[in-house]
Amino acid sequence: MNDPQTLAYDRVKSIDWEPSYIQPEQKLVHKTRFHLEGLKPVDPFKTFVRDYFKVEHEKDNRHYAILEASSRLSDSTPDARWMEGMKFGLSNLPGVEYAAARQMGRMVRSVAPMELRQGYMMQGLDEVRHCQLELNTLRHHLRSWRDPAGYDVALKAAGTSVGGGIFRAMLEDLLTCDPVETSLGLQMFVETAYTNVFFVGLSSAAAAHGDKMMASTMLTIQSDEARHMANGWATLATLLQNDRNIPLIQQALDKWSWRTHTSFSVAVNLFTDYFVTKRQESAKEMNLRWVFDEFYGGFYQKLEKYGIKAPKHLDRMISDQDYLSHSAAIYLFGAWPVFFHRYDGMTPADMEWFEKKYPGWYANYGSFWEAYNRCTDPSDQALILKELGGLPNFCQVCQLPTIFPLPGANSGRSCLHGGQRFIFCSTGCQEIFFNEPEHYQGFQGFLDRYEGFELSEVTRDMGFVREDGKTLIAQPTLASQRLWTLDDIKRCDYVVKKPPPPPLVEAA
Amino acid sequence: MSFSITLAPFGLQFECAAEETILAAALRQGIGLRYGCKHGACGSCKARIVEGEVDLAQASGFALMGYERDAGLALLCSAYPLDDIVVQLEDYTETELHAARPTVARTGRVVACTPCSPDIWQLLLALEGGEGLDFDAGQFVEVNVPGTDEWRAYSMANAPSDRHLIELLIKKIPGGCFSGLLPHALPEGTRVAVRGPYGQFNVQVGSAPIVMVAGGSGMAPILSMLRALAAQACAREIVFYYGARTAADLICGPELAALAAQLPAFRYIPTISEPMVAAPWAGETGLVTAALARDGGNLRGAEAYLCGPPGMVDAAAAVLKIQGMFSSRIRCDKFVSTQGP
């Protein structure tokens, strides 16, 4: 094809140079174990930087016009369950985008072919834009939501909370693993497999709950995602040209399919099912359609001819859809005093919907919700966390509590490594650990930090306290009854304690 | 007179004569646009025209709603260019567009026309001119109804390696434009114009276990696939469910027995829906989809090839999904009537 656009683009790509004062490989900051030498990269798209900025500028203009109009008119009140949940939900996102921007910079400096570097560079710029959009959404909510407490500490909380730890562990893994593996993990799984449940599912939930800011933020971000998926495909298509890459690709896909399932996917499922009042499809329905049937079905079929097999734990990932959001909710609601938003317990109408969408739900989770709703008034001195028997163990790899698929029938286990006992939520995470123990063994979690603390001291230490210095930011209900204070928590007398470890299994 | 057609976002250009459809011109030049029925009834080739005008006279109002027309959508199989055209493709890859076999015109001579069952006939055409026809197992050709401008589509049952021969399995429909000619109006030696190959119903390269389901003359593309797989000494697990009304309607028995000897992991499960006392039958009975459901099992890693009437294909797809098969693994060739819905 000889169209002028292609010719010009090829000319731009040829502006690369051979270094004269360092060795060519010194241009690359991180070494990859994948074999990229001599491969003909697939060019993901032909975009000039000039055109890129023009398009992104226009997108920003449109979005910020909505922000402006929305703050002036404030024509409707968004839904409280959703807006409170967003304190926690949104807190995690700028960090994800910022980490993604850093990852793109690292990949540009670690992957030689120009065609791929060009795509990574534009994605890096996208991620900075997305981070700024989400920071602005936080700021907008802080200024406009009736109870701003929580939005003010959100960014710090992303770094300290036990919920944020799940995202942090995933991001740090993405930032420190092999740079080519980063592309497969981020671009193929987070940005391709889960793109619809996240952007389509959650942005329509945001719109339905009157959160126009979040809906618009997600839509303008989504308009860049096709580029990120194309980067992932281009990287993968390039790698597939060399047979020596096949076992490395298989290992990276196996790791990141499970890794995304136990992190990003848990969060998306939780928000889809437990932070909404205007209910549409369940998280399970959306996941089965978009993630499993559409993504997993098509993706692994395309790769079969290269000898790549579907992930070993695919059946478990699918059967987990019956439990993922519910078990996660027990944890998030059970540990409310160490979070930073107001909770809204499930009502009879919610429970009816759950039983319809997830037959058998009440038998597994109903008693928790009955107990939760009894533990909301501080004068009763009943703390749901204590009623549950305290905090569970956490997985050394993904930082999820070991309560999946069901708290009472979970796949948690411990293994010995170097004379030390490590705890995992599942076979999937255990395998990931033992492929690269040095990558995970140093991770310190919530229990390492706070064991022996009385619970109100934990909340104080995290800074999740309102301006009066004594009332908690988090509250177990939306109702304007008397709010829980640090003293109320103290009177319940719960001291953080490591639970007994799960059963020991063979490391291999 | 001809116009230039550009496929965005790839910038792929080709020429299209004023009297041919955009789809026909693309296929003639080996450009792999997606399609189904090829006569404006199914909507598989729907795409957006972003520049230029097309004439959409033949497109069915069901496959292309009025509001879709107003929004610039067109069925490429029924779109004649009136201008230079830019078509915006969604969800295509450049590789896929370059993967199609160009369609060609050939003449076939009737060598045999033999009954396989009370209503299915096997028509053998020898291709004249020595060029033969390259196709993939599962594809179909169109045959001209002698003396008219009418064309009818039938799948090849022979293996692609028999490139000078076309074997078709044709269900005789009383009054059918082409099938109605069988056998007497198509005596040995009759010359029939043939064009093709068409269709995107072909076996994916890979190692997944294969489930095949066919009814009636849907046997043809499946037989071609099995023959091609046997020629490759394919060791993949293959189960073929074939549905017929009575034992007399079970066709191609000897051919399938021969294939079973060549394919190490092949099982054939014929099913009849109307067993008769007069003809004892020890095999499966009931609908072919019921036999499929009875076998059960986890089909998550498997793939399926379905060919037959739309009702059977849809029912089989539903059963396969319940058994865990991913939608993208289910490929089908539905008979869409030339008469339209």
Could you walk me through the main structural features you see in this protein, from its secondary elements to its overall organization?
The complex is a heterodimer of chains A (508) and B (341). With 508 residues, chain A is mostly helical. Chain A has one domain (49-492): Ribonucleotide Reductase, subunit A (Orthogonal Bundle). Chain A is built from 22 helices and four strands. In chain A, β3 (413-417) and β4 form a beta hairpin. In chain A, α4 (114-144) packs antiparallel against α9, α8 packs antiparallel against α9 (212-239) and α21 runs antiparallel to α22 (486-492). Chain B folds into three domains: 2-97, Ubiquitin-like (UB roll); 104-198, Beta Barrel (Elongation Factor Tu (Ef-tu), domain 3); 210-334, Nucleotide-binding domain of ferredoxin-NADP reductase (FNR) module (Rossmann fold), CATH 3.40.50.80. In chain B, the strands form four sheets. A six-stranded antiparallel sheet of chain B has the order 11-10-13-8-9-12. In chain B, strands 17-16-15-14-18-19 form a six-stranded parallel sheet, with helices on both faces. In chain B, α6 (288-295) packs parallel to α7. The model of chain B has no long low-confidence stretch (mean pLDDT 90). Chains A and B meet through α12 and α13 of A and loops of B.
